[in-house]
């Protein structure tokens, strides 16, 4: 089991997924809306959640009906948690990771890494950038 899986389980308050297959199943079974509160506790702001995961009104609607997040929303929660975990691993602390995720980066055409997490393609670019930084190829 990887540090990433361990962190995601702890951070989202779910059983620690031991494999990527279990992570996929977790998304497909849909996360509870409480996963959003856990992202807030990790330092992701409400406006960031609104833009990256689920609009506040939609979230309130889900909560009032005691519904889970959709598969797409669950996937976005996992994407944010995964990238925060990877950035924390590179920068040593969640605070430094969040600061990096919010700072505009020239390789992303001046956009903050967090802004690009709206899409899978954007998140892959951020993952690759973090790998390059971690390996000393900082550009």
Number of beta-strand segments: 0
Straight-line distance between termini: 31 Å
Percent of residues in helical segments? Answer: 55-70%
Spell out the helices and strands N to C: HHHHHHHH
- Assembly context of the chains: single chain
Our count of helices gives: 8
- Unreliable stretches: none
Number of domains: 1
Largest sheet: none
Main structural class: mainly alpha
Mean of the pLDDT scores?
Answer: 93
Shape: globular
| Cα-based radius of gyration, to the nearest Å | 15 Å
Q: In percent terms, what proportion of residues is strand? A: under 5%
Question: What does this 3D model show about the protein?
Answer:
The protein is mainly α and 139 residues long. It has one domain. The protein has 8 helices and no strands. Helix 6 crosses helix 7 and helix 6 runs parallel beside helix 8. The longest helix has 21 residues. The protein is globular, with a radius of gyration of 15 Å. The N and C termini lie far apart (31 Å). The model has no long low-confidence stretch (mean pLDDT 93).
Quickly list its features.
single chain, 139 residues, mainly alpha, 8 helices
Please specify the SSE layout and strand pairing.
Elements: H1 3-12, H2 20-28, H3 34-41, H4 46-52, H5 56-64, H6 71-91, H7 94-102, H8 120-134
Helix pairs in contact: 1-6, 6-7, 6-8
Q: How is this structure best summarized?
A:
The protein is about 65% helix and about 0% strand.
